[in-house]
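okkk here we go again. third time trying to get the coenzyme A bound version out, last two times i messed up the smiles copy paste (missing a bracket lol). double checked this time i swear
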Amino acid sequence: MSLKLITPAHHYQPSFQGYIQELGEEERYPFVLDLDATDFEAYLIRLQEIEQGTNLPTGHMPSSTYWLMEDDELIGVSNLRHGLNDTIRHLGGHIGLSIRPSRRGQGLSKILLQQTIDKASAMGIESLHIHCYRHNTASARMIMACGGVLESEVILEQESESKIVQRYLCAVSSTRQ
Ligand SMILES: CC(C)(COP(=O)(O)OP(=O)(O)OC[C@H]1O[C@@H](n2cnc3c(N)ncnc32)[C@H](O)[C@@H]1OP(=O)(O)O)[C@@H](O)C(=O)NCCC(=O)NCCS
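finally!!
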């Protein structure tokens, strides 16, 4: 299996569309999968703007989006915030990601998260905050497998239900030159 982490690219649009179709109605992670990609060129430009911190919605931080590819197939999507503000430090954290539904349960999230952590390391980020719902066992196990240590839990009140969010810290050794 040959996997590589890339910056989103025009060439893989068909696989991206297949990925979105597979997600169906499930909640989308990371947030960049919620953006309108009908005009794919415009979508790629928007991702670049988000990376450069241009025209960000209030409260957002600049972030980079990565695609985990196996040949021409998009396997997973991650988003790495370059920094945190108080709101995102409380809930959100540095990294959001997902794996293509048909490829889950094969250990691929750990590869995607580790490669995204390596990007953070290259940016000089020394301590990563990674959050997930407590009921999301696969996500929690993925984070721990990549060195995350549970730091705290907070309750998120959402409409009529409340959910527990686990907040993990992951020490990163900087590889920035
Ligand atoms: C969470 C998610 C990324 C996991 O991806 P995945 O590729 O299926 O996970 P992996 O196969 O790498 O497994 C990671 C760990 O979770 C465990 N796991 C996988 N699927 C599981 C499941 N359905 N239930 C419980 N544990 C599970 C694995 O055994 C592994 O743990 P281990 O290393 O201790 O053995 C994937 O389910 C997903 O994309 N979910 C939707 C988006 C999301 O929830 N993202 C996380 C929040 S940002």
